[in-house]
Amino acid sequence: MLPVLNISNKNDSAKGESMRAFLILEDGTVFTGESIGSTREVVSEIVFNTSMTGYLEILTDPSYAGQAICMTYPLIGNYGVTPDTESSRSWADGYIVRELSRTPSNFRSIGTIQDFLKEQDIPGICGIDTRALTKILRDKGTMNGMITTDEHYDLDAVIPKLKAYRVGDVVTKVSDPVKKIFPGDGYRIAVLDLGEKENITRSLIKRGCEVTVYPAHTSAQEIINDAPDGIMLSNGPGDPKECRDIIAEVKKLYDSNLPIFAICLGHQLMALATGADTHKMKYGHRGGNHPVKDLVDGRVYITSQNHGYVVDTDTLDPSVAVPSFYNVNDRTNEGLSYVGKPIFTVQFHPEACPGPCDSGYLFDRFMEMIKNAKES
């Protein structure tokens, strides 16, 4: 049997009766806490997010499909459930917090996180030392884990199951299978929904665009035939290399010479489609406080991020694309500009508001790029 580190906080349990829950990591570490939300058992990739607020946006971000989220901020749920969501449901596999607020205070609140997790059938655990968990993930890297309420779990049976877990093709799972059109009087924008956060569409509508959202496996030719003025490749979950068929279609979009703006997973897929490579990061970037430097104007912007993979700039062909942003903390790539093409891509989320609106100007840059393309 693997050595077990049992970590619990006996003084942090809520008043009254509660069901015990366990978070088991693939290295054999076991955290003991209190069950929140659904009581079903789940195996998932365990990641951490450093945001202090925005837990509703995080829970409803399709990019978290296949992952259970540990919030590093110690108190979650204090402003309740509000309309601030990024999709119509929660996509996270599980939720891990230090302390869950049971009595939210906010005039916009329509419920509690506890009830939200139950309604969405999301299992969770609270009352554990999330700082200790985060330090383990930072030291050893992202790993798989299980949230369970079974007090008689067999660690020897659980560990192989955790090691065998793979996130797999989650883009197909989260992408809306129905094509949607949002009217507008401005440019006609095609959004390829790879797991889109709805604020991307809202950011385009705010600028007067007519937006058509296409399912992830839509052919490039169908999008081109609809004659959009520009194309947006959205964020999404999972390993970009799993999206082989989509990468082939993205290459066709690249060859079309239409203006393209890509975010997060879309950024990675465009890089793969044009010959570059990606690799998995040790523990990724997830939070609303990541500093990114724009290599064009030299400014640093505070950005929202959610990714576990990154473009390897050593594999870039400089005649195809050049870096345009980098992460100030670890110098990893955060954006590319494509040579001789009306295409730019970013790894972070300019549709989010952590700065609060530091990088929203990139949507305006996209509008300007479309304008220049139409005038040339």
Based on the model shown, name its key terms.
2 domains; single chain; 31% strand; 23% helix; Glucose Oxidase, domain 1; seven-stranded mixed barrel; 376 residues; Rossmann fold; disordered N terminus; ten-stranded mixed beta sheet; alpha/beta
Could you give the topology of this structure?
Layout: E1 6-8, E2 20-25, E3 30-37, E4 42-49, H1 55-59, E5 67-71, E6 75-76, E7 94-96, E8 99-100, H2 113-119, E9 123-126, H3 130-140, E10 143-148, H4 155-164, H5 171-174, E11 180-182, E12 188-193, H6 198-206, E13 210-215, H7 220-225, E14 230-233, H8 244-255, E15 260-263, H9 265-273, E16 277-294, E17 300-312, E18 321-327, E19 333-338, E20 343-346, H10 361-375
Parallel strand pairs: 1-3, 4-5, 5-7, 6-8, 7-9, 12-13, 12-14, 14-15, 15-20
Antiparallel strand pairs: 2-3, 2-10, 3-9, 4-10, 11-13, 16-17, 16-18, 18-19, 19-20
What does this structure look like?
It is a single chain. With 376 residues, this protein is of the alpha/beta class. The protein has two domains: 6-164, 3-Layer(bba) Sandwich (Glucose Oxidase, domain 1), CATH 3.50.30; 175-375, Class I glutamine amidotransferase (GATase) domain (Rossmann fold), CATH 3.40.50. Helices cover 23% and strands 31% of the residues. It has ten helices and 20 strands. The protein has a ten-stranded mixed beta sheet with strand order 11-13-12-14-15-20-19-18-16-17, with helices on both faces. A hairpin with a 5-residue loop joins strand 16 and strand 17. Helix 8 packs across helix 9. The radius of gyration is 21 Å and the shape is globular. Mean pLDDT is 93; it is low at 1-16.
